[in-house]
Amino acid sequence: MLGAAALAWIGVVLAGCAPVPIDTRYVARSQDSRVQFLVLHYTDESLADSLRILTQGPVSSHYLVSDETPPRIYRLVDEDRRAWHAGDSHWRGTSMLNAASIGVEIVNPGASVGADGQRRYAPYPPEQIDLLVALVKDIVGRHGIDPRRIVGHSDIAPQRKTDPGPLFPWKRLADEGLVPWPDATRVATLRASYESDLPAVAWYQQQLQALGFRVPDHGMLDETTRRVVAAFQMRYRPSLHDGQPDAQTAALLRVLNTPVAP
Q1: Who contacts 71 (Cβ-Cβ below 8 Å, separation ≥6)?
Q2: Confidence class of residue 111 from pLDDT cuts 50, 70 and 90?
């Protein structure tokens, strides 16, 4: 039989487990969601390996969109918890985005190198993208995420990542009203002017910084800058993402950074 001292100690422990009384009658106006970014990835693995890695490995994501028929959404991490998907990352002044983002992985084999040495990417099935769009709309609607903060892993970590790759249909997300997209007519007009007077490298670096990328500002076309240019091109001009700061790239940047007033 327990003695009086032991019973008293148990009482203290149980009392410590009781909920702390909190008054919730007042709600502050100055607040928003902790989720400020939505980051899209491809897994570069099969579904089985993706589930294994994202649940048992050192990385994770909030959601996984499968390539099954029909595709399925798996929730792997609750949205109120931090998933480890972004790593060393930066976008629009914020670094290490894990703490302020939701990560969505898409089952896709990614890139492969053919016999000719060319790098080729795998397409996304339309049904998979339809389901992804529905998920993105749901997340954005609940958290009020700014369209400029819906990004790919290659946007926030261009020195080490290329996912979700040049075959990811960013234009589809734009058509759904989820992300900004440059007006083709304005781009064509500006491209003609830039063909005869190409901006300096420093201008490209400044424009990429304004868009949200982390890029040097030394005015030199080094490998770091090329990778950022390539990441930008992969999203807005996927047919050619060679990292070369040309006239069309300049026009795309200018239009995206100077939207027309409604």
Answers
A1: 65, 125, 127, 128, 131
A2: very high
